[in-house]
Specification:
Oligomer: single chain
Largest sheet: 2 strands, antiparallel
Distance between the termini: 67 Å
Shape: flat
Strand order of the largest sheet: 1-2
Radius of gyration: 25 Å
Structural class: mainly alpha
Length: 371
């Protein structure tokens, strides 16, 4: 034991000294520079030349269509028939979940101010950002006007807010449509409508899934296209920090909320000597609310964060590996990044096509059948 403690005392200061000796450039996100999207980057699509900027604009439009699809599906689920008693229970669960989300929103706002202070110190003093960049919006590689340091820091902070709002917004949307779809599905199964019992959960899942990936893709392409190239890297880092912060809070706290709801309701059941299946058992609402908070809010925000940070990580890898090289390396870097966004946009299209194919097959197979 004494030898282990001696080794610990020796290793700790040596490790700290080694980390301090590493140049800041090796770990500086402020040095993440991406080449601009210019007219020289052309793809061969079915034998026809297509500019990178055209593909990016196409991805932006597809993201908008995907988000609108999610909202339309939400409206269709909301318009489905449901028994008033089931709607009442569903609304009680939703109101409880809404209270939970409101508290989490306040907590996230407080945490963001702490993270924002750290980002201001990092990007404003330790590794200042700003200066001359390149205009990306029109695919023009001409130098843009210089961006002031504090204006650049403000842009990064704004991107972090977008990340938090994205995670929080899709979590709010997901739990709302889930509480509505639950009662509609229960009513459809009560009537013995097997096709509706199958299709309503699919509608709900497609609604939140399409909105999640579409909003994420829209934000990332917008950052890539409309910000000066020298701020894109830092802005992606800020965006990833924001969505990771939102997902972490909603994921972890959702699980804790679930356990507290379960334990509290079980204690009340014991105190009042209620059987498990008694309608007065508070665990009925507590379980539904806790499950929605833990199994809907957390995974939805986590999915938004995972979809985003994996893209940011790949962009950072390509930028560090190819972005700082010669002209051909920079062109290859941007080609791979644009191709990544193009594939993500195509995934939205293929998801839409597969959904409607599955819907047509389900109607042909189960339409008109009972139970």
């Amino acid at each position: 034991m004494a030898k282990a403690q001696n080794w610990t005392r020796f290793i700790a200061p040596v490790t700290l000294a080694a980390l301090a000796a590493v140049p800041a450039a090796f770990g500086s996100e402020a040095d993440l520079q991406l080449p601009p999207i210019d007219e020289k980057i052309v793809f061969d699509v079915f034998g026809k030349p297509v500019m990178a900027s055209t593909l990016m604009w196409g991805g932006l439009m597809i993201a908008i269509v995907g988000a609108l699809f999610g909202l339309v599906q939400y409206g269709q689920v909301n318009a489905l028939p449901v028994h008033p008693s089931m709607r009442h229970v569903s609304n009680i669960i939703w109101e409880t979940c809404k209270s939970y989300l409101g508290q989490q929103g306040k907590f996230l706002a407080f945490l963001w101010f702490l993270i924002a202070a750290a980002m201001v110190v990092y990007f404003g003093f330790l590794n200042p950002i700003g200066g001359h960049g390149h205009a990306n919006a029109a695919g023009d590689a001409a130098p843009d006007q210089p961006v002031g340091k504090w204006a650049a820091v403000g842009i990064v902070l704004l991107c972090s807010i977008l990340g938090i709002l994205g995670s929080y917004g899709v979590a709010w949307f997901g739990i709302r449509i889930n509480t509505q779809a639950n009662s509609r599905t229960a009513f459809a199964s009560l009537k013995g409508d097997g096709l509706k019992t199958l299709s309503i959960p699919l509608q709900s899942g497609m609604s939140i899934g399409m909105l999640l990936v579409s909003v994420e893709l829209f934000f990332m392409i917008a950052i890539m296209m409309f910000l000066p190239s020298n701020l894109v890297g830092a802005s992606f880092i800020g965006f990833a920090i924001g969505e990771s912060l939102g997902a972490t809070v909603l994921r972890i706290c959702g699980g804790i909320f679930t356990k507290i709801a379960d334990i509290g309701s079980d204690l009340m059941k014991i105190v009042f000597k209620l059987p498990e299946d008694d309608p007065k058992n508070p665990g009925v609402i507590a379980d539904c609310t806790g499950d929605n908070a833990g199994d809907s809010v957390g995974p939805t925000a986590d999915g938004f964060e995972t979809y985003g940070v994996t893209g940011v990580a790949l962009i950072a890898f390509l930028a560090y590996a190819l972005g700082g090289g010669d002209a051909s390396s920079q062109t290859m870097c941007m080609q791979l990044i644009v191709w990544m966004f193009t594939m993500r946009a195509l995934m939205i299209v293929t998801s839409l096509v597969s959904y409607y194919v599955n819907e047509a097959w389900s109607k042909a197979s189960f339409g008109g059948k009972r139970e």
